[in-house]
Amino acid sequence: MTPYTPLHLDWAGCLNARDLGGLPLTGGGTVRERVLVRSESPSYLTDDGVAAAGAYGLSRIIDLRRPEELAEWPSRLADRPAYLHLPVQAPGDPEEGPWVHLYQGMLDRHPELFARAVGAVADAPEGPVLVHCAAGKDRTGLVVALALTLAGADVDALADDYEVTNARLAPRYELRAAGAGDDRPAERKVPPTRHVILGALEHLSARHGGVEAYLTGGGLTPGHVRALRARLVGQG
């Protein structure tokens, strides 16, 4: 497997912004740089961070949070023409535990919402696409994993990237544990490990016939699949 070092982005205020360029593919090669970016909520951005995110040339910003989250913690990028609000949960959806059950429930309830989010990555204008939720971990982790899997990403590299979030957000968790920092809702106490995202992908294979079948069942078109692969790896 090609060695992979995440490309962290210095967007002041955000700890978990990174470009997924360089992530290895199963058939050789890597994901292209400056096509897919993940982060926590841009509500954390400072003025300098907003300027840095803008300078990165984002062609689309996909906000996966629920409406009530947006109302309490507005995105500092929501005024951009590239901004799209595409939640992957419906009002009143339960949040099961532990982590594996949470992810499986989200996926099983709303294939159409996940297909819509992945389709928005595929059909975005040329340039980097930012996918984010609140922490950039769960909803973002699922949408990014779906897109990367369709593009042929190495599953171990995908899981490695998923776990990077824990280290990136550790300083914020430590501040909250000490009673400092902002008052955004705390994350679950035990950060998820790689088996959680791998378990979600295995669940899609066992119950839905795999990622592509799951997403096409939710409305993703063959054209979207071709466009996504062309975008991420340069293949139609």
UniProtKB/TrEMBL annotation:
Give the InterPro entries listed for this entry: Prot-tyrosine_phosphatase-like, Tyr/Ser_Pase_IphP-type, Tyr_Pase_AS, Tyr_Pase_dom
List the protein's name: Protein tyrosine/serine phosphatase
The record lists the lineage as:
Bacteria, Bacillati, Actinomycetota, Actinomycetes, Micrococcales
Q: Which organism is it from?
A: Promicromonospora sukumoe
Q: Where is the Tyrosine specific protein phosphatases domain?
A: 112-156
One annotated GO molecular function is: phosphoprotein phosphatase activity
Gene3D superfamilies associated with the record: Protein tyrosine phosphatase superfamily (3.90.190.10)
Q: Which family does it belong to?
A: Belongs to the protein-tyrosine phosphatase family.
